[in-house]
Amino acid sequence: MKKLWEGRLSGEKDKAIEEFNASIHFDKRLYREDILGSRAHAKMLAKIGVLTDKEYRDIDAGLTAVEGAIEKGELPFTAEHEDIHTHIENALRERIGDTAGKLHTARSRNDQVNVDIRLYLKRETNEILYELLSLERALHSIAAAHADTLMPGYTHLQPAQPISLAHLILAYFFMLSRDIGRLQDCLARMDILTLGSGALAGLNYPLEREMTRSELGFARVSENALDAVSDRDFIIEFLADTAILFTHLSRIAEDFIIFNSNEYRFIELSDSYATGSSIMPNKKNPDMLELTRGKTGRIFGDLITMLTVMKGLPSAYNKDLQEDKEALFDAIDTTLAVLPMVRGTLETATFNKERMREACDQGFLSAVDIADYLTAKGIPFRDAHNIVGRMVRDAAEKGKTFASLTIAEYRTYSDRFDNDVYKAADVSQARVRKISSGGTGPESIRTQLVQAEALLNRWKSEVRTASY
Q: Annotated catalytic, 366?
């Protein structure tokens, strides 16, 4: 079978060179998009008179037959035919003859592959957004169910202040909401028709690019042909967005790994989302969470791959750009595999309310509240901070807590202490006293749940799975 470009070159290519040059092993997954773009291009060529009505009908019917053959596994993919574009064009020629050769009029593989990737990535980004929305719904449900569940909040992995479990879960929700926003922004920037750019300089035909744009469902047409064929910003942006997303997923996984440990026992993972040990029968391992954390590294690698490929390229298309697909496909596949795992792990986890409440009585979590108590009695906060710090140091050495200190012991640190200090030391009331917006207080949590639900309702109309 002839290659599309062999008129300029002579001689047989070594099989090793064919294998090295070929991209069919990975770009075969673009067959739907390639056929979709070819249908629109053929329709436009008929409109401007390059194809007759019969030629257009033959091409359209032939593409339908080729698509069916691919889906049935009847079209073998080989390195000899290099890429998905060549496979489809050759298969079309086998079915309709030389008319197939007219399909490539006013088109280069440079703009063809660009539009294929954009169509593919638009669809897959919508799938990822759909999975993210499902995860966000799960987080909202967990938060709503645990608005009043008390747990320790941590900084530096040290007990800091009492919070509600909902406060932590809503932190995840708003963290991931930014990821949804970034992917929606990226989706808008990839929604550009580049077909009609040619190799780099445009075409010698009166193309109806707006017609093609409408046929393929793009928002607008690219402005500059040279930029369009070599633009992979949208891939880099997508990979950067998924890298940030995985940073968040990895942090969530880390929290749940820690809270699932025997030392904390705040949560119990479902057996469905855990594994055992090959040698230790006592083990129940959080492998889904650990894999989420581990796969973050490969997502970062995908981003670095694309940045490195692009950083030294001259203008227009270069063969280096063939390396864009494997990194992109890997990031898409990894993201779509991980998001349901994270959602399932969180949805099926059991939260140990008693253990979390018990942990709040350790670590002097009401220290800020006692300092605020002294501040309300007229002592400058910096001085109050020092007083309470000394109290914590001494109480820790004696094995006491704020609740077990006598009022006489309190007064050795300040004569402003009175019996009402025990109310300030009560960790169950510490959360109630948080009245600022965005905090862990009951009113703020209710407000955050309403805000989160409003986002879910908005996204419901914006996020959809895309299919052809």
A: no
